[in-house]
Amino acid sequence: xxxxxxxxxxxxxxxxxxxxxxxxxxxxxxxxxxxxxxxxxxxxxxxxxxxxxxxxxxxxxxxxxxxxxxxxxxxxxxxxxxxxxxxxxxxxxxxxxxxxxxxxxxxxxxxxxxxxxxxxxxxxxxxxxxxxxxxxxxxxxxxxxxxxxxxxxxxxxxxxxxxxxxxxxxxxxxxxxxxxxxxxxxxxxxxxxxxxxxxxxxxxxxxxxxxxxxxxxxxxxxxxxxxxxxxxxxxxxxxxxxxxxxxxxxxxxxxxxxxxxxxxxxxxxxxxxxxxxxxxxxxxxxxxxxxxxxxxxxxxxxxxxxxxxxxxxxxxxxxxxxxxxxxxxxxxxxxxxxxxxxxxxxxxxxxxxxxxx
Length: 357
Description:
Layout: E1 2-10, H1 14-32, E2 35-40, H2 44-51, H3 57-64, E3 68-73, H4 77-80, H5 89-99, E4 102-110, H6 123-126, E5 130-136, E6 148-149, E7 156-157, H7 164-180, E8 184-189, H8 195-207, E9 215-220, H9 221-230, E10 237-240, H10 242-254, E11 263-268, E12 273-276, H11 293-306, H12 310-325, H13 343-356
Helix pairs in contact: 1-11, 1-13, 2-5, 7-8, 9-10, 11-12, 12-13
């Protein structure tokens, strides 16, 4: 198969983790005989520094003509600590989502037996947790207009907006994923308070009869946040709006013991983007200590979701499992008393595993 991907390293640890994920991708392509071409592009603070735009037109054009995008992370302390900054790295991420029509963020959450001890929750609560969060990505508060501040600067406002079409699209996608898994779907909203949530529930109830095999439950977001901690194994597929999904998926990531383990796929109208769920961690940039596994697992999702190459994806996941089982781990997940591996050492070990498999 011919594969054409755009590579957007971004900021902070982004270039380091992207390098390892790309090396793994190239190793898999070589093993299975796929032809791959790739090209780098700017985004985030790096792009602001060089061209003044966190998502340049050239980057967008490259993404549009690519089969998939492998993305690192954006964010820089210079902007985090400057509330008056007119341009921010995160604006580039939002622009990319909107322009590429990346309407659905898919985040699988699964525990690894070798890392149960790293979870802040008791082992009996998290063991066996395996669910998928589907977050609507281009609507809600993050994109609603109007948005701004009053003339005197003392009042700020954001607007949460959803259309019927946006809700239909994401809920239908969630049902399709539930059909491929354990046939249970949790629809998370705040319908007792918010008008947009009432639209979500109304549309979801219209779609529900089309999937009689799926057990559907409706849950307020505050209850869902509590249930994720109390009973994470009760979830199979969860779907929710943009801001709720942003918060709940970060909460869910902690269940596994490290945010450095969770990949994601953003499914779009024009192409799809594959990225780790963690941030840019600028404090660690250049130190070769960041965990590359979430980005490597995002590459596995790319093979699976963008190209339908399940054997290739499974080999990457197998290699990641093997690395953890043999304690080839970065400092965030290394067992006590064992010397941690560097970012590049973990990536190189996984590449060698793939070559020998």
